[in-house]
From TrEMBL:
Start and end residues of each Beta-lactamase class A catalytic domain: 170-277
Pfam families: Beta-lactamase2, ORF_12_N
Lineage: Bacteria, Bacillati, Actinomycetota, Actinomycetes, Mycobacteriales
Residue intervals of the ORF 12 gene product N-terminal domain: 41-124
Molecular function terms from GO: beta-lactamase activity
InterPro entries in UniProt: Beta-lactam/transpept-like, Beta-lactam_cat, Beta-lactam_class-A, ORF_12_N
Signal peptide range: 1-19
UniProt record, GO biological process: beta-lactam antibiotic catabolic process; response to antibiotic
Protein name: Serine hydrolase
Organism: Mycolicibacterium sarraceniae
Length: 444
């Protein structure tokens, strides 16, 4: 059973590609116990059990299946909720409160979050209410952060640093030197190269870039209505590359500067291992390697010499981009098809961007802060620059924020799973991250 797939997207707000092809059942996480049994002695209990069975099924759910569960007017909203939840299976049933016509299922997700599903059953025994709530972990200390993240099943890293005179001073963190996927945070290095060229006078913010049909295949959140041949400015491209993670705009900028300029930016920004991202892949090239036809992921994984990878990138450039919808939930990072860096790198590139944003390059401060990516009190945090990323299996978050005293901070989180997770996992992570910002005033 397969449903139509849609193209990969890396904008954090929409998570990663939302294909709906069948996927193998993931292995139960270490924190998933046997769970609680539901005794099928009432219609309400039967519906509660049906919900659990559907969520833990190997098969996508979809409206047709939900028609057997919910009232007609609830089919669409219930299908939407369950489809999203399904990607985060298996769910462990930690408890169940079953009443005459109501039930609350207490769940533990595969990434360690606690969720409740509240059900109401009508006289016709169909579900007329389906509400999902996610428990927010209580974060009162740095230890609480690791306590929550250690249950996610992900390789993860996080770091909080003060920034003084353009230098990062670590305050707290875990696995800060471990190189992990950056997802779209890599675009900060593209902006660093733009900033360098603008400062040198070899690039102007109002210079025009031309949209192509092939470029639009990558996804463009800011310029989707513009036809091929239309032109946008460097400033517009840079703004959308950061604020909405526009893929086409990113490659337009890389194309204008050349991949060598991004490689130089890696070194100048203090990346711990620039050679690990040399040759530097464009978005089109890496998407073709990770999710395109033909499937060359194994060749990429085993290519140990830079020239071998350069050849694969050249081959990807030589053919039209043809995404494979049935691999769009398969993590490219499982084969090394990603952009990589550690938490210390992320702090350095954020600090460098801000430090160098003077003169002709001062607009970088506005580019980085077009979208804050987090709901914080603007009186406490008058300047917030942000870049996040999302690819199958990889979620990343980063901020350069200045508090009301003028102290600058960089906060970053990276998650790398062996399988796709829905945007729900990112939303849960954000509840932790917001509380991390709440801890920072203690360490001024």
């Amino acid at each position: 059973m397969r449903r139509a797939a849609v193209a990969i997207a890396t904008v954090i707000a929409s998570a990663a590609a939302l294909a709906t092809s069948c996927a193998p059942a993931p292995a139960p996480p270490a924190n998933a116990g046997a769970g609680v049994r539901i005794d099928l002695n009432t219609p309400t209990a039967v519906r509660a059990k049906q919900v659990m069975d559907m969520l833990n099924s190997d098969w996508p759910i979809g409206p047709d299946n939900v028609k057997t569960l919910a009232t007609t007017d609830m089919v669409e909203p219930v299908a939407h909720s369950m489809d999203s939840l399904w990607w985060d299976r298996p769910f462990t049933l930690a408890g169940a409160d079953i009443g005459a016509n109501v039930a609350t299922l207490h769940l533990l997700t595969s990434y360690g979050a606690r969720q409740d599903i509240d059900l109401r059953i009508g006289d016709d025994t169909f579900v007329s209410r389906f509400v999902v709530t996610t428990e927010t972990p209580k974060i009162d200390s740095w230890q609480d952060v690791d306590s929550a993240l250690s249950r996610t099943g992900a390789r993860y890293a996080w770091q909080v640093s003060k920034v003084n005179d353009g230098r990062c001073e670590k305050v707290a963190g875990t696995n800060t030197a471990q190189s992990l996927p950056l997802a779209s945070i890599f675009k900060t290095y593209v902006l660093y190269a733009v900033e360098t060229a603008v400062t040198a006078g070899t690039l102007n913010w109002d210079e025009k870039l031309t949209i192509t049909a092939e470029g639009k295949k990558l996804g463009t959140s800011g310029f989707d209505k513009l036809p091929p041949g239309s032109q946008i400015t460097v400033r517009q491209a840079a703004g959308k590359m950061i604020s909405t993670s526009d893929n086409m705009a990113t490659d337009l900028l890389i194309g204008r500067l050349g991949a060598h300029a991004i490689e130089e930016a890696l070194a100048a920004a203090g990346h711990h291992d620039p050679a690990s991202m040399t040759p530097f892949p464009t978005m089109r090239e890496l998407f073709a390697i990770g999710w395109g036809n033909p499937d060359v992921r194994q060749e990429w994984e085993t290519a140990v010499m830079p020239q071998d990878r350069a050849n694969l990138l050249h081959q990807a450039d030589s053919r039209p981009y043809d995404p494979d919808p049935y691999r769009s939930h398969s993590p490219g990072s499982a084969y090394g098809a990603e952009w990589y860096g550690n938490a210390e790198d992320i702090c350095r590139v954020h600090a460098g961007l801000q430090h160098n944003a003077v003169g002709r390059a001062v607009q970088v401060k506005d580019v980085m802060s077009e979208t804050s990516g987090i709901d914080l009190d603007t009186a406490e945090w008058p300047y917030i620059a942000a870049k996040a990323g999302n690819l199958p299996g990889d979620m990343t978050f980063s901020w350069y924020a200045v508090d009301r005293t003028g102290q600058a901070w960089v906060v970053s989180f990276q998650f790398n799973w062996p399988r796709f997770h829905s945007a729900n996992a990112g939303g849960w992570a954000m509840t932790i991250i917001k509380q991390v910002f709440g801890l920072l005033p203690r360490y001024r």
